[in-house]
Amino acid sequence: MDLQQETADVLSRLIRFNTVNPPGDERAAMEWLQTYLAGAGLTCELAGAEPGRPNLVATLGDPESGPVLGYLGHVDTVLATPEDWSRDPWGGDQQDGHVWGRGAIDMKSQVAAEVVAAAALAREGWRPPRGALKVFAVVDEETGGAKGAQWLTRERPDLARADYLLNEGAGMVMPFDGRRLYGVCVAEKGTFRFSLTARGTAGHASVPALQDNALLKLAPVVGRLASADVPFDVTDEIRALLRGLGLDPDDPGGALARIRDLQPELFPFVHANTRITIAPTQISASGKINVIPAAAELRVDCRAPAGMDGEAVRRRLSAALDGDGDGLDFAWIEQVVGNRSPFESPLMDAIRDWVGEADPGAEAVPTVLPAFTDSRWWRDAFPDCVAYGFFPQSHQSLYDGWPLIHGKDERIDVRDLALAASFYHELPRRLLA
Prior knowledge:
Elements: H1 4-16, H2 27-40, E1 43-47, E2 55-61, E3 68-74, E4 94-95, E5 98-100, H3 108-123, E6 132-138, H4 149-155, H5 157-160, E7 164-167, E8 173-176, E9 179-188, E10 190-199, E11 203-204, H6 219-226, H7 236-244, H8 252-262, H9 267-272, E12 277-284, E13 291-292, E14 295-304, H10 310-321, E15 329-336, H11 346-358, E16 363-369, H12 375-381, E17 386-389, H13 398-401, E18 411-413, H14 414-431
Parallel strand pairs: 3-6, 3-7, 7-17, 9-16
Antiparallel strand pairs: 1-2, 2-6, 4-5, 5-18, 8-9, 10-14, 10-15, 11-13, 12-14
């Protein structure tokens, strides 16, 4: 079935809803999706923490009769600066074989492919022989999901329950050493953000030697954190990825060197997932340019392998600072332990089979997302749920597509919209048979 044009049209329509978060204001987009899916024959319900920001759950089949396969996507986006773009970020233009606009990759494209596939199945009269297909369109992912996926899984588990879940996080083809590999995101790193505060004495900046400038105490810390040589923490998921790449997981240093030689574009992604990452991102000190600051604060974004807790992260941070943090006040800003799903499952088997058929010679390999998605909330709420990130794209590779996420001129190849929609259209027939 050719779903390309319908998916492109739905994506264009979704892009035209300005759902930049904050404030989000997703209701109009959700109501449009509800009308579209209900018109095709799905049962729909809107539910949310706020009237203006509802989540949509659309169901095809009977969830009580068997397993539930969920398609998840968020409709909010990050900001766009129109003067930086060559096209209107909210125009949804279809030009040069692409759909352009904020959300074209992250992630209104996946929402479009999922809803078009579900609608097509419903219009064809197909119903799951057992179980149900659910489409979850949620709000608020870009600011953490408190009013979206987190709220839905905690407050309406009756609506949110799923045995298998597909979301964002992977699927762009990764060329490597002559092979075509499709990543399937099976785990996500945890988020551990913290602050370091230096203390000194305030005074007039015209005579700096009279005072103790707190800001200067942070300068060596920024450099130390940015260049820290932290140890490897290679999880089972990354070991599986390295094996999938044909590399030795017992020699992560050698594996990374080999990746750098063979496919340098892939190196940053794998490197980030073999250890904690430490990124100093914000610093604040004096409120006036002519005042020596009595206090200066450095804020750091740290991501840790799935399953690692705050205590383990602190040990690695202390080693990385090697004494440069002595005398500074440490405070956690956020601690979220990363979670995972088993990388062998009926869902993975179905993805592998489909990849081999849709792109002969290509392979599916497990990957880890260095950031986070709403899959986290489903894994927390439903421990037996197998949640993966998979939005297949064969024409726009990982190396082409990733730089466009949250960037200018975000766009997606319409042929990849067709590929993804065909996958979402086919999967329920395989998994819910």
